[in-house]
């Protein structure tokens, strides 16, 4: 009875040793130290480093045990079609491998190194772990396969059947004996891997010679062996079937009988075969294309060797597989092919030749998976992907061999050996390899789509179409082999990705996501046409000027809430002249500002400028901030007063104050701060952070913004605003009030509530109320009326306006006759009634500003507004604060055209808002509300 060698349905891959050939450009200090420590030239050529490992990985035992299975079940036509499909899928991945490998110097890690440097540490680390476990399980798989092959040939049957015991059967069999044999084989692999990659390359070359000789003998045997009858191995228990098959030699009838498919029950498993199952078995044996690229750390010239060696091996194996399929179809009948997968041994010139080939290829597969696993583990440890957990795996010998990683990998393989049988995990091992191949295609696709100038591989025979085809092919094959294992492996990868994202340190490799985002953002910015802007889709786009972030954290977090998914820019003006400085002082400041943005958890950009004055700096930022249709439309300034600033960054437990809509909280809220901002000024303005502008220039900045058609908001007392305290621990704004005063309180002669500025106030208050954290707050709208002079029914008209604008607010009518009377009394004491008042103006511009009907302008009688009147208005506002509001919105009139009146303008605002708590003085210049659908 012919003995059979068990069918192995799985593939292998070889990984790499560390490379010291990184170019001088962009080399990190750690890489430089490794180069000095391991300054040893690489010696592996294209043939020894790429062609041989790839050939052995792709052949494995398939060439000896799977050819008859494919042709016998699927027929010659479908068999060749299967090979074409399988090689088309892997060829797409080969093109991606060649492209990435020729885009720069490769280090140790093979596929892990390619993916991590292209897609970032999260994807690279998760794929690397999966690749590591796949190699560990693959090594154990091939060791057990070799043990079963040895026991099948030389083992004494467990039932002790004397008739079955021959002279060659001298080895005891059983579970523990198999573990013992596997441990011995694994120790042999360990010894080879501990010596290093060069002894491994010599061992694989010897195995390669053996496999090539066996292949040559098999080809000769088809022509030299005479037709014969071959006894078939035992079928499954309780099954019947023929006991012999025929080797007919080259006959047309035999060929015609093997052309069409003839799917039947697999005699080793009892399962009915079909196209999908046969293709899955075939495809498992056609992979192994990463073996050459995984040797990148030991190659003289990876960029030269990997594409040439890999493509050569793929073409050679494709020719051999199809040629063997044709020879088998012409010379062996269907019964022999379907019932004896080891028939090549029975029709060989000398039967042990095929057995030697099976043993050699299986041992090579086990050894290559072990060394591959150790190299991947070493690369993961060296990149600190899991911190101290893998710190021991970084150790290497004097020759650079990562012996600790080899020992760890060997230990894990030994643990897997105790499973005894690996049929349950073999499919997921193959799926892991396919997932790695899909990730390589994805990395190449991302680099191609990002259009990065530094992605210019010397291998150009690829496009994004080939990358997509490779991804689709690998994913389809994963689910074709086993849909449950494929889904589980993808879920496992995503879990690893999230874990590495939150645990691993920030890398300096570059992130392909940033390149892709840049590419897409540029495209969409070009599509964002300012000529197509419509008031229905208006949103705040804010430029917040920050003198010193130490005293502005409350304002920064509040404006982050009010931006409503719009553009948010933190602007800062540094005084200086670049002509007198050796370098730009702002470049070193960006890190601190970006760290502040991360710490406060706000969605903001940072824009710094160097100027001879704050006014000119703000003009620069208003002109240049943003891009295309995303440019600031609202300028926010802190109020100009003598309120002593408070340093909120001194508290290391400063809570993250960003919007609750922000999906990415700080990684470690308790980490110590390391901001490099100047010290705050004292009350007199002394200190490193003293005042950089006077009241005249401050108002000029407001006037400049209005001239540039920017909305303006002045924020007062936000140094006392604590977002966490105001909103409470759970947020939601429950019990809070936001007060809105839409009337120009500096124009008692105007009662307009529906001018552009008033509507802008309502819009901003409504935007704040739409933010999740403020959604429970109530808007209170205060309607100031004079009982004797105001038009009838103002409250009803305002209610109708709010309904039209879809704004929910509580309207409170506030009589202010006594307050207004204080103003008119001053006018009468001056000798003229208000309607008879006339003044002399120095120029036409001032006259137009004073006498114009623009309700948002600085009042014509501002010079005559008494402190008594302003204090009365201030007390009127304070008197309505029951309960006190979280923030107030007040009407900000336009600065006067006469610059001599700037100090008076600022003084009026100061008296108006004194002691009101967090207050926004707002001036709107553009329509932002519509009642249209």
Q: What's the structural blueprint in terms of helices and strands?
A:
Elements: H1 29-37, H2 46-59, H3 62-65, H4 67-101, H5 111-119, H6 121-154, H7 175-195, H8 197-224, E1 228-231, E2 244-247, H9 252-257, H10 275-286, H11 302-331, H12 334-339, H13 343-346, H14 352-382, H15 403-417, H16 423-450, H17 464-481, H18 483-503, H19 512-527, E3 542-545, H20 553-562, E4 568-575, H21 590-600, E5 605-611, H22 614-624, E6 634-638, H23 695-707, E7 711-716, H24 723-727, E8 737-741, H25 756-770, E9 778-785, H26 794-804, E10 810-815, H27 817-829, H28 844-851, H29 867-879, E11 887-891, H30 902-913, E12 919-923
Parallel strand pairs: 3-4, 3-6, 4-5, 6-7, 8-9, 8-11, 9-10, 11-12
Antiparallel strand pairs: 1-2, 7-12
Helix pairs in contact: 2-8, 2-11, 2-14, 4-10, 4-11, 4-16, 4-17, 5-6, 5-16, 6-7, 6-14, 6-15, 6-16, 6-18, 7-14, 7-15, 8-14, 14-15, 16-17, 16-18, 16-19, 17-18, 22-23, 23-30, 27-29, 29-30
